[in-house]
């Protein structure tokens, strides 16, 4: 289907050009996405739960904050999580991450519970759950590296 650029608003054209010309960030492993997420959310003072949707080449399609909590907790809307991935026809891979403003890299019981719920959703929709990460100011913890996610 051919696009009719003449009918597009200027802001839509600018967004399209930016999308087409912006190099994609390719995730090659926990280390490179962990370092990126430290820069993105590591210094935030409230807990942010983030979803990173990737295509088949592990290039980032979308990064979305699903929830902003308080200093030590965040509630995740699992329906919004699934809708976000389903919007991308090639978005079959994903990573979840949240920051711990306290600086602790130890997953809480709530972290484990939400990861297990997300694992079930991933199995249901046949999404590939690549990693779940905890981010602090200078470090990250990876469920993949800890062999919790295979």
SSE ordering: HHEEHEHEE
How many H/I helical runs? 4
CATH class: Alpha Beta
Average per-residue pLDDT, rounded, comes to 89
How large, in whole angstroms, is the Cα Rg? 16 Å
Provide the spatial order of strands within the biggest beta sheet.
2-1-3-4-5
Give the low-confidence spans. Answer: none
Which geometry do the CA atoms define?
globular
- Give a quick account of the main beta sheet: strands, pairing sense, barrel closure: 5 strands, mixed
Architecture per CATH nomenclature, i.e. the level-2 architecture: 3-Layer(aba) Sandwich
The total of beta strands comes to 5
In CATH, the homologous superfamily goes by the name: Cytidine Deaminase, domain 2
Instruction: Give the tally of structural domains.
Output: 1
End-to-end separation: 39 Å
In the CATH hierarchy, the third-tier topology is known as Cytidine Deaminase, domain 2
Helix share bin: 25-40%
Structural class: alpha+beta
Question: Strand content of the residues, in percent?
Answer: 15-25%
Written overview of the protein:
It is a single chain. With 150 residues, this protein is α+β, with helices and mostly antiparallel strands. The protein has helices spanning 10-21, 30-41, 78-86, 109-125; strands at residues 48-54, 60-68, 93-99, 128-135, 140-142. The chain has a single domain (25-142), classed as Cytidine Deaminase, domain 2. It has a 5-stranded mixed β-sheet with strand order 2-1-3-4-5, with helices on both faces.
Write the layout of secondary structure elements.
Layout: H1 10-21, H2 30-41, E1 48-54, E2 60-68, H3 78-86, E3 93-99, H4 109-125, E4 128-135, E5 140-142
Parallel strand pairs: 3-4
Antiparallel strand pairs: 1-2, 1-3, 4-5
């Amino acid at each position: 289907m051919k696009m009719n650029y003449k009918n597009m608003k200027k802001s839509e054209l600018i967004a399209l050009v930016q999308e087409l010309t912006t190099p994609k960030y390719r995730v090659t492993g926990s280390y490179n996405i962990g370092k990126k997420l430290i820069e993105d959310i590591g210094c935030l003072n409230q807990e942010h739960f983030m979803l990173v949707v990737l295509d088949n080449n592990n290039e980032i399609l979308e990064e979305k904050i699903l929830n902003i909590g308080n200093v030590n907790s965040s509630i995740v809307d699992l329906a919004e999580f699934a809708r976000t991935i389903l919007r991308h026809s090639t978005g079959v891979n994903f990573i979840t991450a949240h920051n711990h403003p306290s600086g602790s890299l130890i997953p809480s019981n709530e972290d484990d519970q939400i990861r297990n719920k997300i694992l079930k959703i991933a199995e249901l929709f046949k999404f590939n759950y690549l990693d779940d990460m905890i981010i602090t100011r200078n470090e990250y913890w990876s469920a993949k590296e800890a062999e919790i996610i295979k």
